[in-house]
Amino acid sequence: MPERTGKLKFALYWAAGCGGCEVALLDTDERLLELAELADIVFWPIAVDAKREHVEAMGEGDIDVAFINGAVRNSEQEEMCRLLREKSGTVVAFGSCACFGGIPGLANFFSRREILDWVYSASPSTANPDGIRPLPQHQVREGRLTLPEFYRQVYKLNDIIQVDYYLPGCPPPPNLVLEAVTAIAEGKLPPPGSTLAPDTTVCEECERVKEEKRVRAFKRPHEIVPDPDRCLLELGMVCCGPATRAGCGARCLSANMPCRGCFGPTSRVLDHGARIAGAIATLVDSQDEEEIRDILEGIPDPSGTFYRFGLPASLLGGNRRKLREGVS
Amino acid sequence: MTESFEPRIVGFLCNWCSYAGADLAGVSRLKYPANLRIIRVMCSGRVEPSFILKAFRDGADGVLVAGCHPGDCHYMEGNYKTMRRWVMIEGILEDFGVEKGRFRLAWVSASEGDRFAALVREMVEDVRRLGPFRLPEGTPDQATLAVAAGGGGSGA
Hints:
The structure holds 2 protein chains of 2 kinds.
Chain A: E1 8-14, H1 20-26, H2 31-38, E2 39-43, H3 52-57, E3 63-69, E4 72-74, H4 75-87, E5 88-94, H5 96-100, H6 112-122, E6 137-140, E7 143-146, E8 150-155, H7 157-160, E9 165-167, H8 174-185, H9 202-205, H10 251-254, H11 272-281, H12 289-296, H13 302-306, H14 320-325
Parallel strand pairs in A: 1-2, 1-3, 3-5, 5-9
Antiparallel strand pairs in A: 4-8, 6-7
Chain B: E1 9-14, H1 18-27, E2 36-41, H2 49-57, E3 62-67, H3 78-95, E4 103-107, H4 113-130, H5 142-150
Parallel strand pairs in B: 1-2, 1-3, 3-4
């Protein structure tokens, strides 16, 4: 980061995400005011009046840090991410969608055509007798109207631009956000490419008592009232903790909910979903293939569960057949 | 194109049974196609599901995992772990659009050289029929995966 006098300049952008990451900044409570003293926010569509033109008018590197949340699903998001990359010294992928694709990334199990068919025709709540579909361009009397192009698949941020730091979480918890901002302010960031969270697993942060794990039946959260002190996996709940990066303080676990895997994998893991699948399948307490099959049937939608936050970051990316079909 | 297609199949064979079975096929001079690239592992239980995905990612057209028959595992129950993971990974591979004939789990003992040769012949034919395995166009390259997963210079 270039040496400078005066305040830092931050930009924030919301791509294909739910908005929870924007709220995560407010979760820093009164410390947000310290942030305001530290930095000027020069671009933040949800809260600040600056527009795209203002960013375009800036010089290269004028923004110190851009925090981008959300995955990249359409052409507008791609353009904005590229623009912010050009104008920013440092880019932080903020939240699981920017880091790994997140929940929107689950769409990669389906083709663009399937998604548009469902949303604009087939879903029970849709009334669209004329079969109207959004078009990237449309000519009306007053001129040409345009919409961003809906891409064939969901991309994580580093598929589109170079990312300097990763701040995972759905959303990133306030303590990690503040640590990151403090590190930026003090010029104490780790080497570029780092994930700004510990490289251990959720199990290490989880205080539940862990003994022997042998599962005869998987249970969904609404089916049991779990013992607050025992490992949820041992109780048969599908918990992604063993293969998921720590840093959240095992927040879900302390609320009696299993880990959903939002922090993504640790550095040693090649494919987050496959790692969770392997870890959980081995817990099945049976040596009979049919029985194993029956017990594993108790996990609804394993792929969606284990790749919940990271399908675009998986080794195979998504459904190859469907991605290929969705050419148009 | 299909006529000249020679499938590349990665085979993870356990040291104690299946690799010895493959060895027996060799010393018995049994014929089987050379499409199988064998990787010897100490136990089929060592084969993490991500190994299978990575093989496909890196250009395999098929993946074979072979271990000791249930009950015969050198490490008591490593192959039962394989069995459990296999049930899980089968469904996941299907969700990724990997056709069933491309991946296979088999139990091959050290005395089953002929069975091993037959198995490889069968699998090569299955995969040949399915054609080359390709990822969809636009799938991001491996480098960005490692960065996202890894963090820091330690990224895998």
